[in-house]
Design goal:
270 residues, mainly beta, Diaminopimelate Epimerase, Chain A, domain 1, 2 domains, 3 helices, 17 strands, binds ligand LBFN2T5F
């Protein structure tokens, strides 16, 4: 089976074109593909399926021809992936499956509109982030209070006093399973200037990654809240680059680079 590899600020994905949904994409296969030693290696898989043939999202078929079937590296499903959506859009255009410019895609979190800019960046409209309250993450013996933000998938974005670069994110941070029964993506960030933050993330179903798009939006929401704001544009520096998040009254946008780097033939699925 044919695959491609791409990334958005080094949040990397294996793309599997499977328009008619013929592949049995079970969790063990996803985990084998994402294995960085025995597989191709990635933070997740983006299966490209026709929306109308995907029972989970067929109600979105009137608005979006293609469904981003996103899976985490451990094989679990997630509702939404911001960087994945940007890489998925890049693939659709390069494969001739979508016209350059603006178009919609289906996700488990609902329809998302994307736009490919002339500068090479890809933007995705992320919808209105929903703030659900506050909770606490435990990292390296410290507790950090943060904001529970719902972007289709769950986030806990915590401002911290220490530089995030010093954190040990080699282990699952503690969180309250009563608040997050399906797990949570945990962002830790330092404000470093006017509307600029440095962020690290421990993703549900993956571990520490070099970027997370939905996490960047959650972080911008939490950073804005520190100064009583709900709108504006934030630069979110992650280990893999810089993302731009724009918060508006009724929606939000995530922008940054999204590139394809390789294509090949996958024998694992055969
Ligand atoms: N890296 C993604 C988020 C992927 C899903 C997440 N791990 C979850 O389980 O919710 C992004 O760029 O948003």
């Amino acid at each position: 089976m044919r695959f491609l590899k791409g990334h958005g600020t080094e949040n990397d994905f294996v793309i599997l074109p499977d328009p008619d949904g013929e592949l049995d994409l079970h969790p063990a296969l996803v985990a084998a593909i994402c294995d960085r030693r025995a597989g191709i290696g990635a933070d997740g898989v983006l299966r490209v399926m026709r929306t109308k043939l995907s029972p989970e999202v067929s109600d979105q078929a009137g608005q979006a021809e293609w469904f981003m079937d996103y899976r985490n590296a451990d094989g679990s499903m997630a509702e939404m992936c911001g960087n994945g959506a940007r890489v998925f859009a890049r693939y659709l255009v390069e494969a001739g499956l979508a016209e350059p410019g603006e178009f919609a895609m289906a996700t488990r979190g609902g329809v998302r509109r994307v736009r490919l800019g002339a500068d090479g960046d890809v933007s995705v409209e992320m919808g209105k982030p929903v703030v659900r309250g506050r909770s606490v993450a435990g990292v390296g013996g410290h507790e950090y209070e943060g904001v529970h933000v719902d972007l289709g998938n769950p986030h806990l974005a915590c401002p911290i006093g220490d530089p995030v670069v010093q954190l040990d994110l080699g282990h699952q941070p503690a969180f309250d399973p009563g608040v997050f029964p399906s797990g949570v993506n945990i962002e830790l960030f330092n404000p470093v200037g006017e509307a600029r933050v440095v962020m690290r993330v421990f993703e549900r179903g993956v571990g520490e990654t070099r970027s997370c798009g939905t996490g960047a939006v959650a972080t911008a929401v939490a950073a804005a809240g520190l100064s009583g704001e709900t709108t504006g544009t934030w630069a979110v520096e992650v280990p893999g680059g810089t993302l731009t998040v724009t918060l508006e009254a009724e929606t939000s946008y995530l922008s940054g680079p999204a590139v394809l780097v390789a294509a090949g033939n996958l024998t694992l699925a055969e």
